[in-house]
Amino acid sequence: MKIAIAQLNPTIGDLPGNAQKILLLAQQAAAQGARLLLTPELSLCGYPPRDLLVNPGFLEAMDVALQQLARDLPPQLAVLVGIAEENSKAHSNGGKTLFNSIALLRQGSVQRFFHKRLLPTYDVFDENRYFEPGLQANYFTLDNINIGVTVCEDLWNDEEFWGRRTYAINPIAELAVLGVDLTVNLSASPYRVGKAGFREAMLTHSAVRFQQPIIYANQVGGNDDLIFDGSSFALNRQGEVVFRLPAFKTDLQIVEFDEAQQDLRHGFVTPRYKSEDEEIWHALVLGLQDYTRKCGFSKVVLGLSGGIDSSLVAAIATAALGKENVFGVLLPSPHSSDHSITDALALAENLGIKTQILPIGELMRGYDDTLAELFAGTEFGLAEENIQSRIRGNLLMAISNKFGHLLLSTGNKSEMAVGYCTLYGDMNGGLAVIADVPKTRVYSLCHWLNSQGNLPLTYLQNRWKGEIIPQNVLTKAPSAELKPGQVDQDSLPSYDILDDILLRLINNYQSAAQIAAAGYDPVLVDRIIQMVARAEFKRRQAPPGLKITDRAFGNGWRMPIASNWVAVKNSYQSKNIPTPTLVSLDVHNAHPKIQ
Amino acid sequence: MKIAIAQLNPTIGDLPGNAQKILLLAQQAAAQGARLLLTPELSLCGYPPRDLLVNPGFLEAMDVALQQLARDLPPQLAVLVGIAEENSKAHSNGGKTLFNSIALLRQGSVQRFFHKRLLPTYDVFDENRYFEPGLQANYFTLDNINIGVTVCEDLWNDEEFWGRRTYAINPIAELAVLGVDLTVNLSASPYRVGKAGFREAMLTHSAVRFQQPIIYANQVGGNDDLIFDGSSFALNRQGEVVFRLPAFKTDLQIVEFDEAQQDLRHGFVTPRYKSEDEEIWHALVLGLQDYTRKCGFSKVVLGLSGGIDSSLVAAIATAALGKENVFGVLLPSPHSSDHSITDALALAENLGIKTQILPIGELMRGYDDTLAELFAGTEFGLAEENIQSRIRGNLLMAISNKFGHLLLSTGNKSEMAVGYCTLYGDMNGGLAVIADVPKTRVYSLCHWLNSQGNLPLTYLQNRWKGEIIPQNVLTKAPSAELKPGQVDQDSLPSYDILDDILLRLINNYQSAAQIAAAGYDPVLVDRIIQMVARAEFKRRQAPPGLKITDRAFGNGWRMPIASNWVAVKNSYQSKNIPTPTLVSLDVHNAHPKIQ
User: What is the CATH number of the domain that holds B6?
Assistant: First the structure.
């Protein structure tokens, strides 16, 4: 039996558009002799629909679209479509008003619904906000083959693999007891570095343990901060990867279930990326491309400082949208170095993008004049530094407003973590492209990009010159250039130290004591933790940032602002270690949160 | 038996500080002969602690603080303290790693834990993200009185009162079956207009139905966007309010349980507010005061336009912080009317606050010059309007940075809904004071404030002149004054119409067809719905806004940005009504999201 995997890129809420995509792929699948088509979780509305799900009109329209789709589909093809389904017993039994469901469409009608059983409610996931868990094991029979149906998280609770349970049940264990021949998993699993490989390892464990061939069909595409990588695959009963779809691309592929062997046949296994940098690059290109496109833009604008962050973002934007759709603006001040201009222009030439130079010195004087009386007797400081950044932000937004270009924000994760960025200044933008990319990864991505000299990076659409990111951008000391001679390391430790501390703190949930025990100066660790805490008010007002790690600042990071938990102080207290003296912070913070 | 209610105002995450507050009130309660002290839900860490709960160091410190508090408390007093408690069976049984618990502290130790059973996961609540529900009815015996223990949402599922169930069980029904003498409810229930009265009506139903005296102890204070009103109360077995604490104030009161009557005795019932305006005013004053204080500020700055929004915010700030801590900045442009200055100065004089005038005309010319070449041949439009607003935003942030004043944003809910505001301009600030106050309510609050002429509004700390908000501010046509002769109603319907449409759309979840059926022009309704949808990217970057309605833009509003759900279009389609032509939108949007 031929089973088609539709690795779809839906637009959130675009019910007619998504239905049309499913229909076209179904027609192709039927033409190739497929009997069953798999689409991703919530494929009709796109994942995550978020609070569109509390809109009764939206739910009504989804049902209408589903019924219409059932009538339009090729009748001989069974199609599994993800939808939000009303829980008709919610008000009598108690419970959430919806199920996260898979509809089985066949022969012109909606034949059955299967309910997702394990509902992730952590990190970026809010499924308990909307959905009631399904209570029954889900399967159906097609051509005498019993097919188990699971939805994303349903297969993320193998207690042998994880060494613990996250939910009380493991749906595939129940399906195995029921004797299904094959389990399919319809997913909307967001990208993080290395996740595709992790999924395969995890499901391989379940395939072997429960003697189940598994077909894993994942959504692809960028939806606000989340990038879905696709990377759908199939495992045979021995847990071997017999089929793998490409990452970050819409695709339709057909997997064959051999009835005699009761197993999946070997097919085309797309090679994995050769490096994390390559994988992240493609993730960011898709994330930028989809956010731009799905918001209705075709062109972007960004500030080019000659630094590595804006250089990388410009390269990503060029790859995503084409050189003719990227506009780089140079905004030099009297504090800017000569190389800030020459490096930015060299980058723009490498990329083939249009630029404009708008010096901000006159405007800086204008602000100085306007504030002269009020600021009389004060020293040049953070206020004046931030004014420069906000002049740039204003000019870039004016260009965005005037020409309908989406403004891209270019701050990296290290900056966003410690607040080394100006709210309403360089943080401005509709999308923060590298907000989840630590500075050290920014460097490695640029080195990777430059190393691709012999590969046909055709989407960069420029004459290839052996390097994209100019050498000087890679080698000079990072600087905000907001006062004479300033470099980032005046205020911050070296980025390899900073990024490792941040990784331990943010991604690995380590305490100050644990981080210090790894060999870092406890005073420095405390200072970094303080900086992260006091930058919360900035992050709250940041644009969506593309998520590439397991813990990003965004929908999955929900911290109070007006709080007085100073992690370091309390964790030291609980261990009877004296509280260290606070080091004064020289960051571009907008207001001093913790005194 | 005397039972004390501690209506506490904790600071999120401030474990030592909150423990100290509990200790002081416990000592007072013990001195007054109380046998039991009730504190709010999660009183040790404050509610909502949000993702501090995924920090192992924080949980460890909370346990340390709890044990220390148990040792420090008066031994003869039983104290119920709210904490996050580790679920030791989570990894073996599956489930969330924490319980939302009440600890019973007595005789120097932590004697028992009670687990919250119903976990709200909707609107601003994320409890399923962290907590596992408790499975057992909670009660304990003190002086031979059996006391049922419930936590906030546990009493929000009376299916008779609601006409439906939200959860499968109703904890007070189980407690009644067990024969408890009294039920206490420890809450952290955020404020919305009229909620205190609603809570009393709801619990009166349960008290009568289950023949239970109920003591309801609620948190007070502002925590980011949420304001907790306190308004704790007690009901006797007949459902009468026998005790009511004030709203928006920290308090300690003692309720008496009469063992002979098996009921609560009558005590002091604080009168309710006389109007919604009075209630909202006090909510906003507390919300502003606590956000400012808990973030470590004492002074605030805001732009005074002479309009009603900034006038109201200035009055709230003056009431909250004192006139010496509020700095009003007038930022006139060549498009500003004369009355923008005179009205703002009259307001400032009424309030007694300091002002500064910073004209922005020179800076506007500076931007025009800088952008002249790039913008050559284009018309004055939204880009130029927004530049003005962003110059003001930059100047206000410079003052904030220079002097350590918290910048207050003054936009109202109507503007935030339709995007009639400039991102990085007038939206700038650490707190959006009236972001959940519709424009029509802004007017009624100002009229209420002016009507208080004979009351001792002592916290305004100024010489009373018979009015706070100048008459001209109340009567002139609202205008952004970003181009000559502009008034809001060039772009928007009258605010009474706009606000009613928004109320139906946002708070009442009505579809376009339902709103039109209430008598509104369908084209206008569609246009408003479009404006709300396309302003999502602005709201995502807005500061926290104080929540006063049942649906605010903030933590409880989780909408996708890059989405294509156009509610009006789809809902019309599903009813086979032709899709109306889109009206061009003349709002100050930063980029055109929907084309």
Answer: 3.60.110.10
Provide the domain limits for residue B379.
Answer: 279-574
**Cβ neighbours of A362 in B, within 8 Å:** 366, 369-370
Residue pair B366/A359 in contact (Cβ under 8 Å)? The answer is no
Whole-prediction pTM: 0.94
Does A581 reside within a domain? no
Q: What residues of chain A lie within 8 A of the CB of B57, using their CB?
A: 511-513, 567, 570-571, 574
Q: Do A284 and A241 share a structural domain?
A: no
Confidence of residue A591 (pLDDT cuts 50, 70, 90): very low
- The minimal CB distance from B61 to the residues A359, A424, A574 is found for A574
Nearest to B371 among A126, A395, A404 (CB): A395
Q: How confident is the model at residue A582 (pLDDT cuts 50, 70, 90)?
A: very low
Q: Which two tokens stand for residue A338?
A: 């000569």
Residue type (1 letter), A317: A
- The pairing of beta strand B326-330 with beta strand B354-357: parallel
Q: Within a domain: residue B579? A: no
Say which residue, A464 or A423, is predicted with more confidence. Answer: A423
Token pair of A285 as six digits: 């290109």
Residue B593 annotated among the catalytic residues of the structure: no
The answer to whether B202 and B156 have CB atoms below 8 angstroms apart is yes
Q: How do residues A174-223 score in pLDDT, each as one tens digit?
A: 999 999 999 999 999 999 999 999 999 999 999 999 999 999 999 999 99
Gap between the Cα atoms of A583 and A565, Å rounded = 17
User: Which amino acids of A are annotated catalytic?
Assistant: 41, 116, 152
Catalytic residue among B85, B127, B152, B294: B152
Residue holding tokens 């999308």? A431
On whether both B267 and B296 belong to a single domain, the answer is no
Q: Indicate the range of A392-401, A458-467, B171-180 predicted with least confidence.
A: A458-467
A541 belongs to a structural domain: yes
**Domain match, B230 and B342 both:** no
Looking up tokens 């994995």 gives: A272
Q: B89 an active-site residue?
A: no
Burial class (CB within 10 angstroms; exposed 0-12, middle 13-18, buried 19+) of B328: buried
Q: Is residue A498 included in any domain, yes or no?
A: yes
B41 is catalytic: yes
A439-451 helix and A495-502 helix, angle to the nearest 10 degrees: 120
DSSP state of A463: -
Residues A294 and A197 in one domain: no
Among A123-127, A416-420, A566-570, B283-287, name the one with the lowest average pLDDT: A566-570
User: What's the length of chain A?
Assistant: 595
* Same domain (yes/no): B321, B262: no
Nearest to B296 among A294, A543, A593 (CB): A593
List the CATH number of the domain containing A462: 3.40.50.620
Task: Provide the pLDDT for residue A452.
Answer: 84
Cβ–Cβ under 8 Å, residues A521 and A512: no
Q: Please give the order of strands across the beta sheet that includes A241-244.
A: A139-142, A145-151, A182-187, A214-218, A233-235, A241-244
Q: How confident is the model at residue B487 (pLDDT cuts 50, 70, 90)?
A: confident
φ, ψ (nearest 5 deg) of residue B250: -65, 140
Does residue A359 have a cis peptide bond before it, meaning omega lies within 30 degrees of 0? no
Q: How many domains in chain A?
A: 2
Rounded to whole angstroms, how far apart are CA atoms A236 and A217? 15
- Mark whether A180 and A117 lie in a shared domain: yes
**A257 shares its domain with A371:** no
Cβ atoms within 10 Å of A116's Cβ, excluding its own: 27
List all residues 6 or more positions away from A509 whose beta carbon is below 8 Å from its beta carbon: B54, B55, B56
Judged by CB atoms closer than 8 Å, whether chains meet at B165 and A561 is answered as: no
Amino acid present at A186: L
Domain C-terminal end among A272, A295, A327: A272
Long-range contacts of B245-248 (CB under 8 A, 24+ apart): B245/B5, B245/B7, B245/B270, B246/B270, B247/B196, B247/B220, B247/B273, B247/B279, B247/B282, B247/B283, B248/B220, B248/B282, B248/B283, B248/B285, B248/B286
Q: Are residues B16 and B31 in the same domain?
A: yes
